[in-house]
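User: Sequence recovery, please. Input:
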């Protein structure tokens, strides 16, 4: 059933309108003359009512009730309500005897049996001959109240009902009707008033002052008019017309006037009496749209809606009788009939009655008029619970889930469906609604207390003779919910958005979230997936609830999900979940992937929202979001997103995710989850299974990714994990194990189980590189493996003699070149063998290596190096000379401190240099190559000539040329000549010294005379008696000293 748009609420009943008459006798004014509208023939002349006139009322002493038992004469002149204006909590009542009574009332409570408390602030006599007050227009921002009384338009202050100075707002007389420009809200700082005076239309601008803007002279008197912007729709005594004020200003009345239909004219009945027609009615029903009433052929009345150009673009309303009052409240036309009936017509679609009110409220049968007020708010005086109950939106869940899930898979939804649970999460707080602002707040402009269910606008007031009733729209929440049930999603959402503007209703309020969630579910049911996603995001739909529409995902989340019955939501929303059931089962094949995309995008949105300062979801939803999102990414092949999720901060439950991924054969994704959560061993186990071919996953990068991980992310090379991976690689891929071996730190290599690795490598003959790394890292068993490695090198080096041939050629050019220096630039086994044997830090079993070299037979230099390490210098020298490494032999024997000398390999005994030179000379002489022997001997004689006697020449072969010994002979002769010259110089120097001493002594004797010594003369140094000892005398110090002390 369609929701009724309005609720009738009594505002005031039993008004005592003549507050000044309390306790006093009432003196009624004399009968007044006819009003202007009566004289124009649009209203019947008032006549004395009979005793049963229900509209008579009397002010009773000390009470607001009417004494209906008074005399007929008094009741004939009873005071009635003629018009009303409502502005916030201030109510201004215009009476039939020319007064305005101001009341302040509490905020009315919707559907309450109690009238709101009221206080009469003041009652003002307009002093216009006791004529009835026809119309009140409040302008809150200007603090003005426009009053039409007895054809006189007067401006009062809204706050204290004082007449505004005529300098600012002149009194206008002869007014038949007045209308406010409805294009501009009355709460603005300036509005236009359209005033009809006999045959004249005047437009006034009302601001701080009132000024005339435009005047239009017309042919006939006006009975009704309304205004929207530059257009005025009016009814005169002849026709309905539309005036274009802008065109009239520029082109005149003829160009700016559009005649529509004739108005009803007086007629004579069967008895010949003149029957006056009812007063014409015009009203604004939209931007540049107007409605006027006209009689049809029968007793009905038509409401014709036209544009400012006279076009009838909307439907025509049909009334059962001529309304005594009619107003427009977007999008409804409200018609009041003489019988007291109130009909509400919807103009959005085909015009029709959507609500009828007949006698539901006391005194409503005597309803006389409806007024459009500046506006006020009515409180629903409810929290979420009552408002929801009003539209069957209750969030309280009184255990009716048995019926809701009948015929469905109960396990999918909840295993706690039988639990007695009453969830009390409210749309709005259950606290008392805030007090409505007082009279100092104009028109209730402070909307900080706004909500979709607690307050509703109320600007339509229906007048009784002494009562006021509000036609209050249903709270927006209920209206929006009705639209959603009719699947008018866009209209419902537009209402929510409109309510959010200018108020402090938050998007996070439960009311707004409920509306958005309902909109999303309606769209989801109709498979409008993009719209559903948008509304879910705006309404913060609980992601745990949404997962129940994906049974496979709900089963996967398992214990992480709370039972569906425990997720707080309104029954209408819950029912939509039950109706949809499995979303993918109602989706077409083309929409299957779109439903997965919706879940993915919404979970991503929820994840970002949980990282805000005020997360909108329960904290236990976080692991659900991340764990399900991990599965969705894996299923939808979102590899980059999956990696970013599991490797960044997350709440993925690894056991659940890994169990599913492995069962779905997504081994690589499963391994990433293991590793991200610290279980590297399980992750690498999967990788090893992938590398061994036990399982397959195309996402896995193979050996390259495996090596990159264990060399980079696994650690710095010290951990046991890397060592274990190396052991596995040695068995699986020896070539790949070499990459890891190069990255292992020396500390890690030093503790490797070398025997285990060597055993695996020997099977493929690849142990040598591993042993080299062990030795370089100073493994605890380095001597053992060094010996093994050296024997392997010896075996390889013995198979080639290319190094000796090349060395001999290079040595012929440079006798100072050693074999070790020659092979250092090579990358052969021979070079590594020589390097290791010549390294001081190498530790190995020298006798074993020597035996191996001797067995090889052609590695003389290497044999010499081992002999030198064993301290067998002489044998080493002989081996070097025999192998042709003469420079190394010379350094070993004669230059042990040289950097490349093999003497550094072991401590050598001290020896005589001349003996060593003579021994080496003897070895050189015995060299087989006579030319090489001569070169070696010549160089040795030249270099160490000081250690070789001249007789050594006799040992040399006689056939050698003189050039071999010539440098040596030259050195010897040079040494002999230099010795003789040195002796001659030394004799000359000695003679010169003696002569100088004699000359100095003679001079001293001449200058100082004889030196006379006494018997007791002592030495100036040792202080002993000189006696007969030789002495010297120093003239400078005049001291006598022993010669030995001088």
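Assistant: Recovered sequence (1046 residues):
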């Amino acid at each position: 059933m369609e929701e009724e748009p309005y609720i009738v609420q009594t505002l005031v009943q039993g008004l005592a309108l003549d507050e000044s008459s309390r306790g006093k006798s009432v003196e009624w004014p004399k009968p007044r003359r006819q009003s202007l509208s009566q004289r124009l023939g649009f209203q019947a002349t008032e006549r004395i009512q009979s005793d049963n006139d229900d509209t008579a009322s009397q002010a009773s002493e000390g009470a607001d009730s009417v004494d209906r038992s008074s005399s007929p004469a008094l009741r004939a002149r009873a005071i009635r309500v003629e018009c009303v204006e409502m502005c916030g909590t201030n109510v201004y009542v215009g009476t039939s005897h020319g007064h305005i009574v101001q009341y302040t009332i509490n905020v009315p409570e919707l559907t309450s049996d109690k009238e709101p408390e009221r206080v009469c602030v003041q009652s003002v006599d307009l002093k216009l001959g006791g004529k009835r007050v026809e119309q009140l227009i409040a302008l809150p921002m200007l603090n003005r109240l426009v009053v039409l009384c007895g054809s006189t338009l007067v401006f009062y202050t809204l706050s204290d009902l004082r007449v505004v100075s005529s300098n600012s707002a002149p009194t206008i007389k002869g007014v038949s009707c007045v209308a406010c420009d409805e294009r501009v809200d009355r709460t603005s700082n300036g509005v236009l008033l359209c005033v009809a005076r006999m045959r004249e239309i005047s437009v006034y601008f009302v601001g701080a002052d009132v000024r005339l803007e435009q005047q239009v002279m017309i042919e006939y008197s006006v009975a009704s008019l309304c205004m929207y912007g530059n257009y005025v729709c009016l009814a005169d005594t002849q026709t309905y017309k539309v005036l274009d004020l802008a065109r009239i200003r520029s082109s005149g009345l003829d160009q700016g006037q559009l005649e529509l239909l004739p108005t009803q004219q007086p007629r004579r009945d069967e008895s010949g009496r003149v029957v006056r027609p009812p007063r014409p009615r015009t009203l604004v029903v939209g931007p540049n749209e107007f409605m006027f009433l006209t009689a049809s052929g029968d007793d009905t009345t038509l409401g014709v809606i036209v544009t400012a150009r006279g076009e009838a673009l909307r439907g025509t309303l049909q009334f059962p009788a001529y309304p005594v009052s009619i107003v427009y409240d977007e999008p409804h036309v409200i018609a009041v009939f003489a019988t007291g009936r109130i009909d509400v017509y919807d103009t959005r679609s085909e015009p029709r009655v959507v609500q009828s009110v007949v006698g539901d409220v006391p005194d409503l049968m005597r309803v006389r008029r409806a007024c459009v007020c500046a506006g006020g708010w009515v409180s629903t005086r409810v929290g979420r619970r009552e408002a929801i109950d009003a539209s069957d939106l209750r969030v309280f869940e009184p255990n009716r889930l048995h019926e809701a899930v009948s015929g469905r898979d109960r396990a999918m939804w909840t295993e706690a469906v039988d639990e007695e649970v009453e969830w009390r999460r409210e749309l709005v707080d259950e606290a008392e609604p805030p007090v409505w602002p007082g009279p100092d707040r104009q028109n209730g402009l402070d909307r900080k207390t706004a909500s979709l269910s607690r307050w509703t606008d109320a600007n339509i007031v229906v007048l009784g003779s002494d009562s006021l009733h509000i036609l209050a729209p249903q709270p927006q929440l209920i209206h929006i919910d009705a639209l959603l049930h009719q699947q008018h999603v866009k209209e419902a959402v537009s209402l929510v958005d409109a309510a959010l503007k200018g108020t402090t209703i938050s998007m996070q309020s439960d009311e707004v979230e409920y509306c958005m969630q309902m909109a999303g579910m309606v769209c989801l049911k109709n498979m409008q997936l993009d719209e559903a996603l948008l509304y879910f995001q705006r309404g913060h739909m609980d992601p745990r609830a949404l997962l129940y529409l994906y049974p496979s995902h709900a089963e996967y989340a398992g214990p992480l999900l709370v039972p569906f019955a425990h997720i707080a939501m309104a029954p209408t929303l819950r029912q939509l979940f039950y109706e949809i059931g499995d979303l993918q089962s109602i989706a077409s094949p083309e929409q299957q992937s779109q439903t997965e995309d919706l879940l993915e995008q919404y979970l991503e949105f929820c994840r970002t929202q949980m990282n805000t300062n005020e997360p909108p979801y329960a904290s236990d939803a976080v692991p659900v979001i991340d764990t399900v999102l991990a599965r969705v990414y894996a299923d939808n092949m979102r590899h980059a997103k999956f990696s970013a999720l599991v490797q960044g901060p997350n709440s993925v439950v690894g056991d659940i995710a890994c169990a599913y991924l492995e069962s779905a054969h997504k081994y690589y994704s499963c391994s990433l989850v293991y590793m991200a959560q610290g279980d590297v061993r399980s992750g690498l186990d999967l990788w090893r299974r992938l590398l061994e071919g036990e399982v397959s996953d195309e996402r896995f990068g193979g050996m390259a990714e495996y090596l990159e991980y264990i060399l980079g992310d696994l650690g710095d090379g010290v951990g046991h994990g890397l060592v274990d991976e190396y052991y596995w690689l040695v068995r699986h891929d020896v070539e790949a194990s070499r990459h890891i071996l190069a990255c292992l730190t020396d500390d890690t290599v030093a503790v490797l189980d070398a025997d285990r690795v060597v055993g695996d490598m020997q099977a493929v003959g690849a142990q040598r590189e591993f042993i080299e790394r062990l030795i370089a890292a100073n493994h605890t068993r380095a001597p053992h493996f060094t010996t093994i490695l050296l024997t392997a090198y010896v075996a390889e080096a013995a198979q080639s003699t290319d190094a000796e041939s090349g060395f001999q050629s290079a040595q012929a050019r440079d006798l100072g070149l050693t074999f070790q220096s020659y092979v250092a630039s090579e990358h052969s086994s021979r070079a590594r063998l020589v390097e290791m044997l010549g390294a001081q830090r190498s530790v190995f079993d020298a006798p074993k290596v020597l035996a191996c070299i001797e067995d090889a037979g052609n590695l003389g230099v290497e044999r010499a190096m081992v002999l030198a390490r064993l301290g067998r210098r002489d044998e080493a020298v002989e081996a070097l000379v025999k192998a042709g490494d003469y420079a190394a032999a010379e350094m070993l024997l004669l230059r042990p401190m040289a950097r490349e000398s093999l003497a550094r390999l072991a401590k050598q005994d001290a020896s005589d240099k001349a003996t060593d030179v003579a021994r080496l000379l003897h070895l050189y002489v015995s060299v087989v190559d006579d030319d090489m022997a001569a070169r070696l001997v010549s160089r040795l004689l030249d270099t160490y000539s000081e250690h070789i006697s001249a007789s050594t020449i006799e040992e040399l072969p006689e056939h050698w040329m003189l050039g071999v010994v010539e440098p040596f002979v030259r050195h010897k002769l040079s040494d002999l000549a230099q010795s003789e010259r040195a002796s001659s110089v030394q004799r000359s120097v000695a003679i010169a010294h003696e002569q100088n001493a004699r000359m100095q002594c003679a001079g001293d004797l001449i200058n100082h005379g004889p030196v006379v010594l006494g018997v007791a003369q002592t030495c100036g140094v040792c202080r002993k008696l000189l006696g007969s000892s030789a002495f010297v005398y120093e003239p400078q110090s005049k001291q006598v000293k022993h010669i030995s002390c001088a």
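The CA atoms of residues 54 and 624 lie 69 Å apart.
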